[in-house]
Design a protein that fits this description.
This protein is α+β, with helices and mostly antiparallel strands. The protein has helices at about 45-65, 85-105, and strands spanning about 1-10, 20-30, 70, 75-80, 110-115. It has a five-stranded mixed β-sheet with strand order 3-4-2-1-5.
Length: about 120
């Protein structure tokens, strides 16, 4: 099973520390293998890989920032800067991963954690 872990931070938008407008993604970590098909024909794994590669390449090409993610077999972890453009791309990745989870819950799970709760 693929496990995507999205760690976010509360973003305070006024001087009142309790006024929270939104959250900012700090880190995205994806691990595991879908095993939804034989090697080379695993469409869930291929789709997740395409989403992650597109995110990393888009940040570099469109935002001019090298995420330098940690990558090894069955694992990728990227720290996500607070830049609004990069945040938008990260949110897009999460939308794609959650769509995959909705359609293929047996093979992928997306977990959200607030940094403040770690």
């Amino acid at each position: 099973m693929i496990r995507a872990h999205v760690v976010s931070r509360k973003v305070v938008t006024s001087s009142d520390a309790l006024s929270v407008k939104e959250r900012s993604i700090e880190r995205i970590e994806i691990s595991g293998h879908a095993e939804s098909g034989e090697y080379g024909k695993d469409l869930v794994c291929a789709a997740v890989s395409a989403l992650v590669i597109t995110f990393v390449n888009s940040v570099e090409i469109l935002c001019g920032f090298d995420l330098a993610p940690e990558i090894r077999s069955g694992y990728v972890c990227a720290m996500v800067p607070a830049d609004p453009g990069i945040q938008l791309l990260a949110e897009s990745l999460v939308v794609g991963l959650e769509g995959m989870m909705h359609d293929h819950a047996k093979y992928i799970v997306v977990k959200h954690t607030l940094l403040e709760d770690l």
